[in-house]
Design a protein that fits this description.
Oligomer: heterodimer
Number of domains of chain B: 2
CATH class of the largest domain in chain B: Alpha Beta
Bound molecules: thiamine diphosphate, iron/sulfur cluster, magnesium ion
Structural class of chain B: alpha/beta
CATH superfamily of the largest domain in chain B: Thiamin diphosphate (ThDP)-binding fold, Pyr/PP domains
Number of strands of chain B: 15
Helix content of chain B: 25-40%
Mean pLDDT of chain B: 97
Distance between the termini of chain A: 37 Å
Order of helices and strands of chain A: HEHEHEHHEHHEHEHHE
CATH class of chain A: Alpha Beta
Shape of chain A: globular
Number of helices of chain B: 13
Low-confidence stretches of chain A: none
Number of domains of chain A: 1
CATH superfamily of chain A: Thiamin diphosphate (ThDP)-binding fold, Pyr/PP domains
Strand content of chain B: 15-25%
């Protein structure tokens, strides 16, 4: 059977500003396709963060709201409470979600807020030029950890899925990665599942996507995929951490 | 309609509901906690059917308001001074994203954690921009519970009209005291996408009607930011021309004019009444909107024939005094009486000050 490649209408045709090999572009597409397949595209509000994906407002072709750095889950809470029937999701980087916005995501999850989060973990602050994130691996060099992250000095990286799945309010938590076509397919399935649960009125869902930042990792796109596989996945194991729907 | 005895904080909350506000997000802090407490019950009553949510912080609360406001509904938060400081980044972005909402600050004594009694030290923060960037809030300073109710209706209407947040700067005394008040009829507020085409009310890219919501405070290109600023500054000019509110009191034969706002103006008023009984004519010019500030009215009052001096009284080191000076622009002698923190100027002090000024005339 011939497979026809078609661009989804849920993404605009605006040229993306993402660097070659950046994971954000792939994840945008997965999100758009998941929504399209669920056929709820007319009543969606996406919340873009502060980070490289701050421009996501220009790329998703449904109602978009940009939030302040880290505050997307609070903004999403306000939107969902006002529009309980809409699909509301936040799209957040690791600096945004795991550092400055740690309180917002924990409490949205605690409340079982009926929103979904696509959490893009590239182990670095991409937009500001490659500083250390709370998710930066021990030993990883960044512009603010030039000798590599020192666990004694600034602690070990935070595992968001593991942490949030301990909360009663989280309904579904899964970690996926972009390093292979199989993993990318699984990432889309996970995002779709999170959205599906939300439409069924279930609690808070989060999908963490291990992604790449070739520019600030100082690697080629191919090298960065290998680096993700060899360094990130061992520390951030893939899989479902919680799925109340499967229990 | 019969008058009802009500506590300031509860009246503020009820007035919001009566004016169509169905979304409140807040965090406890004295002396405004009765506002969220009131909402936590009232929002769930049958005739209201709204949403009260206790946020994890003031930062989150203002961002929840931001979220709700993007959908076009009437939303608000309330807090007191330290909590309002935490909201400032959010307030700045609400202004930049041109989102209507109402913020109540029941001011207490600062700086720092300060005191939990009434204060007026947040004048600069409210009026001169407590957050970053060139923006203004429409700021009301009620001096009675009834006026707080009336300001609430105005605040929501003007916020919607001009697509800007409005703030009510009350203080601990207004929030805690009980007065007989008249409330407006309860009304619903239905989001009309034709009136709020910018709101996130649903957009189907496969069958597009209207515009896709793109709410943001991000304007990376200087030219784009210039366009926003032109629009904002244009709006501010229209607000300055049309929405100034003040009270001129006992001005007819005034020799001295007091400028004051909020609770302090009330105290000054009782001094004015007492002195009038003794044949000493003191008037008052009381801004109800702190922004837009009644520059013209203050100038006119200060330079009215027969007026020989102005006395500005505040519960701070003289913050509104700056605007009084700008208004008067050297055309009249200005004296100041004030205390910082929660130290309320007393009737005796104000009276003594006015008598001393009168003596020196
Ligand atoms: C209050 C605030 N603090 C700091 C910044 C600067 N800032 C912009 S993006 C960013 C880091 C974003 O990193 P991440 O969330 O990991 O997103 P990425 O760019 O890697 O996708 C920071 C610190 C800001 N815009 N606002
Ligand atoms: S800096 Fe990194 S995260 Fe940002 S667009 Fe480039 S590759 Fe992507
Ligand atoms: Mg990042």
């Amino acid at each position: 059977m011939a497979v026809e490649y078609k661009a989804t209408q849920l993404l605009t045709e605006k040229p993306r500003h993402y660097c070659p090999g950046c994971g954000h572009g792939i994840i945008h597409r997965l999100v758009a396709e998941a929504i399209e397949e669920l056929d709820v595209h007319g009543d969606v509000v996406g919340i873009s963060p502060v980070g490289c994906s701050v421009f996501a407002n220009n790329y998703f072709n449904f109602d978009m709201v940009n939030a302040l750095h880290g505050r997307a889950p609070a903004v999403g809470t306000g939107i969902k409470r006002a529009k309980p029937d809409s699909l509301v999701f936040t799209y957040q980087g690791d600096g945004d979600l795991a550092s400055i916005g740690a309180a917002e995501v924990v409490h949205a999850a605690m409340r079982g807020e009926k929103i979904s989060t696509v959490f893009v973990n590239n182990a670095i602050y991409g937009m500001t030029g490659g500083q250390m994130a709370p998710t930066t691996l021990v030993g990883q060099k960044t512009t603010t950890s030039p000798n590599g992250r020192d666990a004694d000095w600034c602690g070990s990286p935070i595992r968001i899925c593991e942490m949030l799945s301990t909360l009663e309010g989280t309904y579904y938590v899964e970690r996926v990665a972009l390093d292979s076509p199989g993993h990318i397919n699984q990432a889309k399935k996970a995002i779709k599942k999170a959205f599906q649960y939300q439409m069924e009125g279930k609690g808070y869902c989060l999908v963490e996507v291990l992604s790449t930042c070739p520019t600030n990792w100082s690697m080629s796109p191919v090298e960065s995929m290998d680096w993700l596989k060899e360094n990130m996945i061992p520390y951030y194991p893939l899989g479902v951490f919680k799925d109340k729907g499967a229990e | 309609m019969a008058k009802k005895l009500m506590k300031g904080s509860e009246a503020i909350a009820e007035a919001a509901i009566r004016n169509g506000c169905r979304f409140f997000f807040g965090y406890p802090i004295t002396p405004q906690t009765e506002i969220p407490e009131y909402f936590s019950e009232r929002m769930f009553e049958e005739d209201v059917n709204g949403c009260f949510l206790q946020a994890e912080s003031e930062v989150s609360a203002i961002n929840m308001v931001y979220g709700a406001a993007t959908t076009g509904v009437r939303a608000m938060t309330s807090s007191s001074s330290p909590g309002i400081s935490l909201k400032q980044e959010g307030i700045s972005s609400l202004c930049a994203a041109e989102l209507p909402c109402v913020i109540v600050n029941v001011m207490r004594g600062g700086p720092g954690i300060g005191s939990i009694q009434a204060g007026q030290g947040d004048y600069y923060q409210a009026v001169k921009g407590g957050g970053h960037g060139d923006y203004h809030l429409i700021v009301f300073a009620p001096s009675s519970v009834q006026e707080a109710i009336d300001c609430m209706g105005k605040a929501f209407d003007l916020a919607d009209k001009y697509r800007t947040p409005a703030m009510i700067c009350a203080d601990g005394i207004i929030a805690q005291m009980m007065e007989p008040v008249e409330l407006p009829e309860i009304r619903d507020y239905k989001v009309d996408p034709a009136k709020k085409p910018w709101a996130a009310t649903g957009y189907d890219c496969k069958n597009p009607v209207g515009q896709r919501a793109d709410v943001t405070s991000l304007y990376v290109e200087t030219e784009e930011l210039d366009v926003l600023h032109e629009r904002l500054q244009g709006t501010y000019k229209v607000i300055e021309a049309n929405e100034v509110q003040y009270e001129a009191y006992n001005m007819e034969k005034a020799e001295i004019v007091v400028t004051a706002f909020g609770t302090v103006a009330r105290i000054a008023k009782s001094v004015i009444d007492e002195l009038e009984g003794q044949g000493i004519h003191v008037g008052m010019l009381r801004p109800i909107t702190l922004w837009p500030f009644p520059y013209e009215a203050v100038h006119k009052a200060a330079t009215q024939p027969g007026v020989k001096a102005v006395l500005d009284v505040e519960m701070n080191a003289g913050q509104m005094l700056d605007d009084v000076k700008i208004a008067i622009n050297g055309a009249q002698k200005i004296e100041f009486l004030g205390h910082c923190g929660s130290h309320l100027p007393t009737v005796e002090e104000i009276k003594a000050k006015i008598l001393a000024m009168k003596e020196g005339m």
